[in-house]
Amino acid sequence: MPVAGRKQAPTAIEKETATVTSTLSGREWQLPGMWNRMFEPRVLSTYTATGFAALAALPGGESLEYCYGCGKCVPVCPVDVVGEYGPRKLHRKVQTGVDLFSADDLWLCTTCANCLRVCPKQVNLVEVMPAAREVAVGAGHVPRELQDVFEKSFRYGNALGENPRRRHAWTRGAGVPVRVLPNDPSPVDVLFYVEDYWSFHPRGQEAAQAFVRLLTLAGVDFAILGPEEKTLGDSQRLAGERGLFEVLMEDVVATLAKYDFARIVTPDPHGLNALRKEYPKRGHTYETLHYTQLLAPLVDRLPLTVPLDAKVTFHDPCYLGRHNGEYEAPRTLLRAIPGLELVEMGRCRENGYCCGGGGGGMWLDSFTGNHTSERLSERRVREAAATGADILAVCCPYEVSRFSDAAKSTGNEHLQVLDIAELLDRATGGATGTSEQPSRAAGGGAAGSPGPASSIERANEDGA
Amino acid sequence: MANQRVVVIGGGPAGLRAATTVAELGRPVVLVEQRGFLGGTPIAERYASMTPYLEDPEAALGAMASHLASLPDVEILLSSEVRSCSGDAPAFSLEVEVAGQSRSVEAGAIVLATGFQHFDPGRETQMYGYYEYPDVVALQDLESMLKDGNVVRPSNGEPPGRICFIQCVGSRDRQIGNEYCSKVCCGVASKEAIEVRQALPDSEVFIFYIDMRMYGYWESQIYWPAQEKHHVQYVKGIVSEVLPRDGRLLVRGEDTTMGRPMEIPMDLVVLSVGMEPSPGTRAMAKLLGVAQNKYGFVEAARPPLDTVGTNRPGIFAAGAALGPADLEDCASTGGLAGARAVASLATAAVTSG
User: Fold this and answer.
1) What is the nearest CA distance from A361 to chain B, expressed in angstroms?
2) What predicted TM-score, i.e. pTM, was given to this entire model?
3) ipTM associated with this complex
């Protein structure tokens, strides 16, 4: 039962004894309190909207008050579908005096921007949420699991708390040489900004390996920052740690200033978002592409000869699609794969359903789980499975792990979750195994024929 | 030969616009006004400002009246009422009582601009207690307070800390018999809410509504600024009960977003009363024999492309006599009715000559 906008168990009010008159005998009975249990009235009786003024004092926080209650956000909010949270309800709760800065609702928004897309009043939760969360972070009201990630990001420069020196360990299984700029700082065309999940997560590493094989096949001159790379921290910013984001930005800008590169390519739409929208606000402008945007115009250079006879559906990442307007590049790449049949989910492109990972959601799995009937990723995987697809293709590093877990938990193990880079790699006859497995020949790439892992390691070190 | 004179009944915004149009087209006009002054309800009910542009009604309508009086062949009869009407277009013969004296006026065409009255909240089926509680007032009562620059709780003369408007009082209600939307109350309530927030910056202002009906530009002229700049709190879900509690008023309704009852205290409750035909509109329509709809408003005979013609040739209606209307509607139909009246005389002159 919601009280003052929050779901709370009813509080019992018990009297010690009660007198009840029998309707049969007319006799009076003294009963213990359990027989006259009452509940708090469910009537809303407090009512003050001062929360809006507190929000309006924050940069970007003023627009929540603009809501006129049309409810267009309700069906498109991914969280509203599985829980009590929704932008319209949030407006109403603040109107009825709920303190957003200490409310659990503060952490449920994934900043996926689907509400903003449909909002006639341009209530912008992508700005409201980070602003309000920053206040909560300052006051120390942060879910523990998220605080851990903030601390790891600050200490290690990555959200996973991994050893930064092992950031390019994945290159060993790549099967092609990968130039690491600190070892070889000569000018390069493409700076491949690997970001955290392709650097450290086992399934991300496989995608990173596939991607560098594709770059090699396409004859792209590329290099990575290796141990000098730090996360761009956009999701940490959206989760309320602007201070951390600013510190990371200073470090990243200083690192980037050391090297001569033409453009940055990243697999992480969140990193892309930071470089395209946040860095320029501080005067740091780089030509930045998502990896699908780099590969799509080069797709003819890839020898896509191995048919992939499978039905594939594609999940649009919120921060690539709605936030940065790219819907075609991933589809261009998928359509280029022989034998692949692309089937779209009902919610796709502009109306893509969020995987739940954005805006800090990646690191609030337990917290969010307590407020929702199922994970957003589970909901999405069921939509993907309903298309009859064999493979759910993704191009955001958060998603492979999220959706793989969700496929298992929803009984859709038959649905394989693969990054587009991995699918392209398969179609070129490239390696498809894990990082432990030495890569097979990646075709006649410009960088020369790759050999066994050990020699590749040497090749990568030779680049120093 | 048709009489070239036009009689305009009613000296509010619509009647003034109609008479001015006739005079500017060079025809003689007689304006018959029941009250002792021109300007109609905005003056009689002491509106603080006109929606949505916030002009002072006395200045704006006063200027209109002086302009009319300055035109040739204009006769303005105050404290006057039409007692009878005989004949047909283009030769009407009216008997007008002017300050107790009967006088006959010949006219070729008539414009009926007798306006509306505010719904009497005592007739409301909901328990709003307009006549029981001094701190329950209606839109026009608050207009008057705003005009005096003295927004207070009538019960104790103190400035109210929490004020709410309850929309659709006397409108959109089959039981009351007014099934129509009164069209202006959403805008007027929002305009007053802005003025209250400006007069009492520490006050909290709420508007409880069924749905906000902000026609055309009123959306961005009134509604959005009220919400975004003046922080008026709009709450979907109407209040259906007002109860006294601890010297304040407890308004009770539904929190529709959360689906639960709601009861919150207020210092001042403003009922957004709708529009009904004025007694003058009912009486004149009957006297002139023009058709009225089931609500008592004059029925436009050939809508939608003829908004002012009645079932009687040579008799036109304008303003809120035709149904709920804002000031812009009144000026539009007033001007049109005046022009149509003159045009009907010209046509009559051609056919009879």
Assistant:
1) 25
2) 0.85
3) 0.85
